[in-house]
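Milestone 3.1: sequence recovery, worked example.
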């Protein structure tokens, strides 16, 4: 084979990657384009006009569904799940650095929900609330169901982070007179903050998009994935595509916020490193 000549394996991988990108982003791009149709638009091509009509119509009173309410509930639930996931995952990561009685059993119990089908967890939590004569709701039973999905991921990430953490930084801080809380606040958290933001990003997106674990736990009021599923059998206008575009934009906004946060943290570290070098 001549140098630089591309073999069959290269073209096979290139074709596979192209198909992967088309299957991944093709439906999203189709929804994005069709959501900008005019008032006479339909659910299929060709497009009929070009406007923002369906985006304005999205948050108006619909014959079926409560889009604005479902979006608000999913955003609130996703943010709360994100915060709790970050706090608990960070605390668990600190705790699991040292062996303690029952740590192995506790670890496997924590990640067991990744193995159990989501629909069974949703059904079990819903039944438990009814046995306890408590009405399932998106802010209680669904909140707990989502944590069974986000916390194991957060725990695994933080365990990997703390497994590579150099504890000499903490020892140096204590030698300088820092209290345990000051060490965590001023030394540990700044070092693991990028990973912690990643845990938060995982927590929010997993909760925001979760369908199966919300199915039997959300109660009377739907989260956004449940609302979208219900609308697919009733809504026959591009307002459904406008909703898909908005939810996709929210997801990309969360990713953008995370990337901006990473950039700010990196710049601060570079600036502090430069200042330390000058002081030395």
């Amino acid at each position: 084979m001549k140098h630089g000549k591309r073999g069959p394996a290269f073209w096979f991988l290139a074709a596979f990657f192209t198909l992967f990108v088309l299957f991944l982003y093709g439906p999203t791009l189709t929804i994005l384009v069709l959501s900008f149709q005019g008032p006479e638009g339909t659910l299929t091509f060709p497009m009929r006009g070009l406007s923002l009509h369906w985006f304005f119509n999205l948050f108006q009173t619909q014959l079926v569904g409560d889009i604005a309410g479902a979006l608000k509930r999913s955003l609130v639930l996703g943010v709360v799940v994100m915060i709790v996931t970050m706090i608990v995952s960070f605390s668990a990561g600190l705790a699991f650095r040292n062996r303690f009685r029952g740590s192995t059993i506790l670890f496997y119990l924590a990640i067991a929900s990744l193995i159990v089908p989501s629909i069974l967890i949703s059904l079990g939590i819903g039944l438990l609330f009814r046995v306890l004569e408590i009405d399932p709701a998106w802010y209680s039973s669904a909140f707990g169901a989502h944590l069974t999905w986000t916390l194991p991921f957060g725990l695994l990430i933080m365990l990997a982070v703390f497994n590579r953490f150099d504890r000499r930084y903490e020892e140096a801080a204590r030698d300088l007179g820092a209290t345990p809380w000051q060490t965590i606040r001023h030394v540990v958290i700044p070092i693991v903050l990028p990973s912690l933001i990643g845990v938060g990003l995982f927590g929010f997106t997993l909760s925001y998009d979760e369908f199966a674990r919300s199915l039997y736990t959300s109660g009377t009021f739907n989260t956004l994935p449940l609302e979208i599923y219900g609308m697919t059998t009733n809504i026959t206008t591009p307002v459904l595509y406008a909703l898909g575009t908005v939810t996709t934009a929210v997801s990309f906004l969360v990713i953008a916020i995370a990337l901006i946060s990473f950039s700010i943290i990196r710049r601060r570290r570079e600036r502090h490193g430069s200042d330390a070098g000058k002081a030395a």
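The longest helix spans residues 239-279. The CA atoms of residues 23 and 226 lie 23 Å apart.
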